[in-house]
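seq:
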Amino acid sequence: MSKPVSRSFSGYTTDALTLLGQLIKEARIRKSMTAAELSERIGVSRSLLLRIEKGDPGCSIGVVFEAATISGVPLFDQGEREIKKTMSMHQEKMNLLPKSVKKSIQVMNDDF
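struct:
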């Protein structure tokens, strides 16, 4: 059996995860929700919610975003309508970009 790969994250990433977890916990408490109630609402175990609130980088981003949404923590500066509009604009841009990126290989000309 292979060893689990240990992964390191940048300080900015760990700080952002910690902050998001703190915001989720604060919003949950302001709404007078227990950890058990919020975890039930998002469909995860209480222990997973507590990991999210501690900023554990191993938590699924979808679950973290759902915890933020249900507790009332805004994920972006935009509201839902503006996010949909921005997503549409970015999809149009993505349609103009190549489907994949290939590194160009430079052939050395050694004819002297």
